[in-house]
Amino acid sequence: MKGKISIVGCGGNGLLAAQVLSSMGFEQISVIDGDTISETDLERQSLYSRNDLGFYKADTCRKKIEKLNGLKNVVSYDVYLDSYNIEEILSGTDIVLDGTDSIRTRELINEYSVKTAIPWIMTASHGDMGQIKFIFPGKTSCLGCMMSGRTLIPMNCHYDSVEPYAPQGVSVLSTSMIASFLSDEQVSGDLMFIEFRKMTIERIRIDINPECSVCAGHEYTLLEDKKIKGRQIY
Fold first, then answer.
1. In terms of pTM, does the model score above 0.85?
2. Chain segment 195-232, per-residue pLDDT in tens
3. Is residue 234 part of a domain?
4. Which of 45, 64, 75, 105 is the most exposed place for a label (fewest CB within 10 A)?
């Protein structure tokens, strides 16, 4: 399997996805995260250990994967994705997996995705639930269509506790979605809510909004706003 994958955020969702994708034959996997490993990360991220506390997540993720499977196809960036570096870091990638806890970063990825016609997958975990949406410009609705000018508070561990199995489940589903898409299989653009304890999936259809400022109006406000630098929780 060829291709370049970029994973933004090496928390629970992104970390496990990187581990799975690294062994699937991709040409390159980029992991991007300016955060460092803390005590709370150990509760839900099995790849990290107490010896990793205080070190950058992206660099640690890369080293762990190299040690586990001997592969050298992971590149790490110890920075937060922002309007200054996004075009350089994501240039040449075939698909982006969002594993962040920042709605601003997701909006930024969405604008870049629409501008460059690169698909991306939005993921989130909280409690025993997960959230996934596949976005392919011109084929599915984008994040702008879903938000319709509203400000959303992201589902993530900053506001809710996360059961350890939730990010693992989200990672498996999102990596399977990537494999399906790159095998030319049709992937749904529905917003999916997964309740892992009850093993249920609720799908919400979100149509393309003909008045969306991003995918219809091609307005790239955050990409052009150099104030979007570093970590943006909201």
1. yes
2. 999 999 999 999 999 999 999 999 999 998 866 555 55
3. no
4. 75
Say which CATH number the domain at 57 has.
3.40.50.720
First-residue to last-residue Cα distance in the chain: 36
Choice between 157 and 32, residue whose per-residue pLDDT is larger: 32
Can you give the pLDDT at residue 126?
Answer: 84
CA atoms within 13 A on the CB side of 78: 11
Instruction: Compute the distance between CA of residue 222 and CA of residue 55 in angstroms, rounded to an integer.
Output: 29
In a domain? residue 230: no
Residue located via tokens 């509203």: 150
Q: Which domain holds residue 65?
A: 4-224
